[in-house]
């Protein structure tokens, strides 16, 4: 590639990125009053970047998730999707920039404190306790019940019991309540991991590749579950399965090389030449 062609390619990418981020420019927390941006966005990042050994894994000037939104983030491997969630959840500190959540700057907060503020995260591999029953996993996940020895030996309140049973019903695990988690299917383990998050009633859920390794029926039920959860929570879903993304039918953000490349419906992304080149390798 000649220097001139390479320069034009970079300029085109920057122009595309600028169009994708246009919606957020009027809501920069550093520029306007908190009441204005926080009333619209539950999550907002500004000049957010992180570098590893000189490689910039995430580089986002401004980007936000609205209250009550279900947003899907897609992109090729290495695009920065999971790293973005690491930055939001406090798992990884940013090199530059700020993360705002629920009207507060959480950039320097510890991961555990951010979780207590109402950001729940489900990793690609479900995090459950195999030796415990489905019911016991949720009992342990109740707020303030992380001392497992005391928690599993004490008797739960009627309110806690009803809360667990209600969630098990919602995620189609009622019949598995006494089954060891190790005996659950992969899809059921995904639902259990999601249940362990929502039992603490977080405002924001970060869900990483919920459809990975699922059967067709499990994929369908998981999409329906996320849509139902979106009635009470704000969700950010990282996903590779385009059929799953299509079933969700929500706004899609495309990341590529750590940057926001484009936003819109999945149908719009599938006809976007820049997205096709970056995501599908065309």
Short descriptors:
four-stranded antiparallel sheet, 10 strands, 282 residues, alpha/beta, 12 helices
Commentary on this structure:
The protein is an alpha/beta fold and 282 residues long. The protein has helices at residues 3-20, 34-38, 81-89, 111-116, 134-141, 148-153, 158-170, 186-198, 216-229, 242-248, 266-270, 273-279; strands spanning 41-52, 55-66, 70-74, 96-101, 104-105, 119-122, 204-208, 234-238, 252-256, 259-264. Strands 6-7-8-3-9-10 form a six-stranded mixed sheet, sandwiched between helices. Helix 5 (134-141) packs parallel to helix 8 and helix 9 (216-229) packs parallel to helix 10. The longest helix has 18 residues, at 3-20. 39% of the residues are buried.
Shape: globular
Structural class: alpha/beta
**Terminus-to-terminus distance:** 16 Å
Rg for CA atoms: 20 Å
Pattern of helices and strands: HHEEEHEEHEHHHHEHEHEEHH
Question: Care to count the β-strands?
Answer: 10
Give the averaged pLDDT, no decimals: 88
Work out the helicity level.
25-40%
Q: DSSP helix count?
A: 12
Strand order of the largest sheet: 6-7-8-3-9-10
